[in-house]
From TrEMBL:
Top-rank taxon, per record: Bacteria
Designated name of the protein: GlcNAc-PI de-N-acetylase
A GO molecular function held by the record: hydrolase activity, acting on carbon-nitrogen (but not peptide) bonds, in linear amides
Pfam families linked to this entry: PIG-L
Gene3D superfamilies (UniProt xref): LmbE-like
InterPro entries, per database record: GlcNAc_PI_deacetylase-related, LmbE-like_dom_sf
Length: 77
């Protein structure tokens, strides 16, 4: 990929958007880069389920993002 041993920042709009970059993020980490993923929103609008509050959706999205970050080997902010 040509980027090795660097600090890389990936900006995404919503928690779960890392899915679209997962292959690239994993490869960057595999090549020895430190990767930080910055999320612009908290994901509270990410459902049509009216039974869930914004706070519940935010908490779910945060846990999902933390788990994905762990698998990918990235840091989330």
């Amino acid at each position: 990929m040509g980027v090795k041993g660097k600090k890389v920042i990936a900006f995404i709009a919503h928690p779960d958007d890392e899915t679209f970059l997962s292959g690239t993020l994993a490869r960057l980490v595999q090549e020895g880069n430190k990767v930080l993923v910055v999320i612009a929103t908290n994901g509270d609008k990410g459902t049509h389920d009216r039974a869930q509050t914004s706070e519940q959706v935010t908490a779910i999205r945060r846990v999902e993002m933390e788990r994905a970050a762990h698998v990918l080997g990235v840091t989330v902010s």
